[in-house]
C-alpha cells in the first residue's frame, strides 16, 4: 500500500492488535500490521512516520519472548510501546522489567504528568491495566510520566528520541479518551497530517489488484467471514467476471 503517511504496528501477539490499527485509521492515518521481527531494511523501505509496538502475552525476560531488532530504536522514527511493547522497549534500552507480586488488571486510576501524548488530559485518567510484569527501572534518558498506586511506571518518555511507552491500553473503550492519546502520538509526536481516507484505500487496492492480475483469471476461497468476503468484493470490483469464488465449508460455521 503506497501512502505518504504510514504507521507501522509491530505485532507481538497481543489481543488488541487489530483494534490498535483501527484506532489509528479512525484518526485518518493509514496503519499496517507487520510481524515483530520485520527487518530494519524493510522498515526503511516503507518509510513510516511512526511505529507502534503492541501488547503481548509473553514476558520480555523469557528465553522465547518475541523481540524486534534493537536497531529500530536508532532509526529516528517515533515509537509508542503499549504494555508488552513498553516493557520490550525498556529491556532493549537498558532498563529493568520485573515480576510483580500482584497482577494489575481492570480499569485503574492513572496519575498523569505533562507530556505531548497527554495533551488535553488532566492530572489523572481511568485506564485499562492488564499486566503481571512491570517496569521497575526506566532506561537512561527516559522520564516517568504516569503511575498508579501499585505501578511506579505506568508511562514513560524520551522526548529527544521520540520514544514513548504506556503500561495501559489506550486502544480499548475502558480507557477514557484513549483514542486521544493515540491521536496525540500521531499528531504531536509523529507530525502526521491525517489526510488518509478509507475510500482512497479501497480505490488504490482495486487499482493494485487490477494491475497485478491483468487479463488472467483469479480464484478466491470464500469462507463467509469478514476477511475473505472483503477480499472477494475488492477482487470483483477489480476484475469482474474474471474472478471465481469457491465457498469453503471449514466446519466452523454457525
C-alpha-based Rg, rounded = 20 Å
State the major sheet.
Answer: 9 strands, mixed
Mean pLDDT: 94
Structural category is alpha/beta
Count of DSSP strands: 11
Shape, principal axes of CA atoms:
elongated
Report, as a whole number of angstroms, the end-to-end distance: 34 Å
Number of separate helices: 6
Helix content bin: 25-40%
Low-pLDDT residue intervals, each spanning 5 or more residues? none
In quaternary terms, these chains amount to single chain
SSE arrangement, N to C: EHEHEEHEEEEEHHEHE
Describe this structure in words.
With 254 residues, the protein is of the alpha/beta class. It has helices at 17-26, 40-46, 84-92, 178-189, 198-213, 226-239, and strands at residues 7-11, 31-35, 50-53, 79-82, 96-112, 124-137, 143-147, 155-158, 163-166, 218-222, 243-247. 27% of the residues lie in helices and 28% in strands. Helix 1 links the parallel strand 1 and strand 2 (31-35). The longest helix is centred in the last third of the chain and has 16 residues, at 198-213. 35% of the residues are buried.
Briefly summarize what is shown.
This protein has six helices and eleven strands.
Key features?
single chain; 254 residues; alpha/beta; two-stranded parallel ribbon; 6 helices; 11 strands; 28% strand
In terms of topology, how is this protein built?
Elements: E1 7-11, H1 17-26, E2 31-35, H2 40-46, E3 50-53, E4 79-82, H3 84-92, E5 96-112, E6 124-137, E7 143-147, E8 155-158, E9 163-166, H4 178-189, H5 198-213, E10 218-222, H6 226-239, E11 243-247
Parallel strand pairs: 1-2, 1-3, 3-4, 4-9, 10-11
Antiparallel strand pairs: 5-6, 5-7, 7-8, 8-9
Helix pairs in contact: 5-6
Amino acid at each position: 500500500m503506497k501512502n505518504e503517511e504510514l504507521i507501522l504496528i509491530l505485532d507481538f501477539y497481543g489481543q488488541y492488535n487489530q483494534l490498535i490499527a483501527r484506532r489509528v485509521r479512525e484518526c485518518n492515518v493509514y496503519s499496517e500490521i507487520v510481524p515483530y521481527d520485520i527487518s530494519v531494511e524493510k522498515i526503511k523501505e516503507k518509510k513510516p512516520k511512526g511505529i507502534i509496538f503492541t501488547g503481548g502475552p509473553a514476558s520480555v525476560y523469557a528465553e522465547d519472548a518475541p523481540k524486534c531488532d534493537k536497531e529500530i530504536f536508532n532509526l529516528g522514527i517515533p515509537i509508542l510501546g503499549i504494555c508488552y511493547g513498553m516493557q520490550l522497549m525498556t529491556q532493549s534500552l537498558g532498563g529493568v522489567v520485573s515480576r510483580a507480586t500482584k497482577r494489575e488488571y481492570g480499569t485503574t486510576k492513572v496519575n498523569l504528568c505533562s507530556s505531548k501524548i497527554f495533551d488535553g488530559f488532566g492530572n489523572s485518567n481511568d485506564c485499562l491495566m492488564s499486566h503481571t510484569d512491570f517496569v521497575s527501572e526506566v532506561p537512561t534518558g527516559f522520564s516517568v510520566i504516569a503511575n498508579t498506586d501499585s505501578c511506579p511506571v505506568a508511562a514513560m518518555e524520551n522526548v529527544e528520541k521520540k520514544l514513548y511507552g504506556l503500561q495501559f491500553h489506550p486502544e480499548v473503550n475502558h480507557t477514557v479518551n484513549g483514542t486521544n492519546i493515540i491521536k496525540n502520538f500521531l499528531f504531536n509526536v509523529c507530525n502526521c497530517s491525517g489526510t488518509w481516507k478509507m475510500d482512497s484505500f479501497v480505490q488504490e487496492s482495486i487499482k493494485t489488484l487490477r494491475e497485478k492480475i491483468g487479463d488472467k483469471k483469479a480464484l478466491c476461497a470464500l469462507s463467509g467471514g469478514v476477511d475473505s468476503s472483503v477480499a472477494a468484493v475488492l477482487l470483483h470490483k477489480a476484475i469482474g467476471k474474471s474472478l471465481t469464488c469457491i465457498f469453503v465449508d471449514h466446519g466452523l460455521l454457525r
